Amino acid sequence: MRVPRRTPGTRGGRRPARVPGALLVLLGCLPGLTAVLALALCARGVESAAPVRLARPGADRAAPAHHAARPRILSRSVWLDQAAAPPGQPPPRYDDKVVAVFVHHTDSPNRYDCADAPRIIRALYAGQTGGRSWDDIGYNFLVDRCGTIYEGRAGGVDRPVTGAHTQGFNHRTAGIAALGTFTAGVPVPRAMTDAIAALAAWKLGLADVDPRAGAHLVSSNGHSRFKAGTATTLPAVAGHNEGFMTSCPGAALTARLPEIRQTAARLQGRTPTARP
Known about the structure:
six-stranded mixed sheet; about 25% helix
């Protein structure tokens, strides 16, 4: 009978269990992985009011009970001249979700050909990134009078991108700008309000928010209608003037917001509100 050779450090002639090479590589990488995680956690502090989620919306949760179809949205490439983009634009910032939308008007002329909408948006972008030294256009979306929806601020239309549209309430909200000026007595095109409703229904539906409900928000600075840190409830589909001292989105468009809320709720499949 052949006697097995003993190896130093073993008992009973048995060799110790071998650790797979792949596991050794993984163990060796743990310090590096830990450092990467620490950097990611520090990066979240850039926007301390809300965490950054790298996963796409809905990737780790059940589908919302009330949702609407995503409307057609034209990408930034339709209007943005890359050569005119400011150098060193920082990466987009994100919140955890969108619980409200603010409706704006752009204070630009109303009598435009819809084919000129990209040029108008490009001029708005130039004014905000040039004259105001912003890093990008402030609005998340823009809608022309023909009902065409354009992607505004970079970061992904289906993600909760932190915009720069409503002083004090940019977190957990999206800004939708109507191309034009809609003061009292100015007609608001049906195609425009229908597009705003469809966009609000889809965007709020990602978080199962009723467009007719109120949204709990916290003011981030005292330049809004509320002191910094003030918790308040604003409409889930609100006019710019709900959060900031302004006449935007104009009396005519403000008067259409109740209808926009009802249409958005219907598009989400919600029960219509009983009329008094």
